[in-house]
Design brief:
With 374 residues, the protein is of the alpha/beta class. The protein has helices spanning 48-60, 76-84, 90-93, 142-159, 189-198, 216-232, 247-259, 298-308, 310-337, 356-370, and strands at 2-6, 9-16, 62-69, 108-116, 119-127, 175-180, 204-208, 262-263, 270-273, 276-283, 286-289. It has ten helices and eleven strands.
């Protein structure tokens, strides 16, 4: 078990397989004594539901599954370690003596139990080594699409079980960070095709990797070009405008949409600058401070993913992307049922009992339709 310091608080971190459930490390912090309202004759106590929900959430913990996609050498693992200020990337916990480019895209995931100030979260980082590294990258998005749909299918199978688990393990991909090379020109056809297809099934947050290789003017021009290309190709990245809940959400999300893609720099190296510990990259002409918004937009990305929109990202995954998949799969199964033979009624007007073989076939048809691979 590792111990890291995050924002001055104690954090515990352990590694587990993707299928493992979150482990309890420490009991939650003591609950504050509830305010008494004996002097308020009209007080009912409805507001106490918030404290009840908080206590329940603290006991259960949270789950967050994040996928990182981009060609090799763009700093994907480093950025993950920087986001959570811990060694959470695949390369950090599964180092190999010789990291070779795989011939095909591999999907690898590693899970951690992270705790901060009594709040426990099972974090799963899903890596896609091999993406965009081949001479022919045609259809290289397909294994990633299949993986995302497989997680939806696994969740659906748990939901339709007669004896369902009290809490279904959630392996659905909540967010996909897509790393764009800092070319300064325009999106590659691979970038456009991937985001166009995957934005329909998962929340995509595009970032410009290693943004310190661009001047400020080049960075702003590149960001503007990318936004125009996203609009021209009908690519709706997170936060999607159609899912804004109200005017207040729209104002907040419009500011985020104006900054996308985030120009980020990642580093897990600590330095002392003016007597203060910072994460950064040291060069001959100075130190690039990762969390300084004057140097890069990493802080905006961190706030979006963790501090302000994490729950909204999970809500959209469950109520929009997964729901779209679930409806399509159940419609497929209903279409299968319509081909079953009609039941002849008895002379007394009651329906005849189906033969055992037909009943078994109906159950088999339902199971087969719902377990069919996309």
């Amino acid at each position: 078990m590792e111990r890291d310091r995050i924002a001055g608080s104690e954090v515990s971190l352990s590694h587990s397989n993707m299928s493992e459930s979150a482990k309890v490390h420490h009991p939650g912090p003591p609950v504050k004594a509830e305010k008494t309202h004996g002097s308020d004759f009209s007080y009912v106590g409805i507001d106490a539901i918030l404290e009840q929900m908080r206590r329940k959430a603290m006991k259960q913990g949270f789950e967050f599954n994040i996928m990182i996609v981009g060609q090799s050498g763009l700093g994907k693992s480093t950025l993950m370690n920087t986001l959570f200020k811990s060694k959470v990337s695949r390369k950090s916990v599964q180092p190999s003596p010789e990291e070779r480019i795989p011939k095909t895209i591999e999907i690898k995931s590693v899970s951690h139990d992270v705790e901060e100030k009594g709040v426990r979260m099972k974090l799963t980082v899903i890596d896609t080594p091999g993406f965009g590294d081949q001479i022919n990258n045609e259809n290289c998005w397909q294994p990633i699409m299949k993986f995302i749909n497989d997680q939806y299918e696994a969740y659906l199978q748990e939901e339709i079980n007669i004896n369902r688990k009290k809490r279904i393990p959630d392996s659905r991909v909540h967010c996909c960070i897509y790393f764009i090379p800092p070319t300064g020109h325009c999106l590659r056809p691979l970038d456009v095709e991937f985001m166009r297809r995957l934005s329909k099934v998962v929340n995509i947050v595009p970032v410009i990797a290693k943004a310190d290789t661009l001047t400020l003017e080049e960075r702003d021009d590149f960001k503007q070009t990318i936004r125009e290309e996203l609009r021209a190709n009908g690519i709706d990245v997170y936060p999607q405008k159609e899912f804004d809940e109200d005017a207040e959400d729209r104002i907040i999300n419009d500011k985020i949409r104006e900054m996308i893609p985030f120009a980020v720099v990642g580093s897990d190296q600590e330095y002392q600058v003016n007597g203060k510990r910072i994460l950064g990259r040291k060069t001959k002409w100075g130190t690039i401070e990762v969390e300084n918004i004057a140097h890069c937009e990493f802080a905006y990305l961190r706030d979006l993913l963790i501090r302000t929109h994490m729950q909204n990202i999970k809500d959209i995954t469950g109520s929009i992307h997964y729901e779209t998949y679930r409806v399509r799969r159940l419609n497929e199964s209903n279409g299968h049922f319509t081909s079953l033979p009609a039941v002849e009624p008895k002379t007394n007007g009651l329906p005849a009992e189906q033969p055992a073989a037909l009943q078994a076939n109906g159950v088999a048809a339902q199971h087969g339709a719902l377990s069919h691979e996309m």
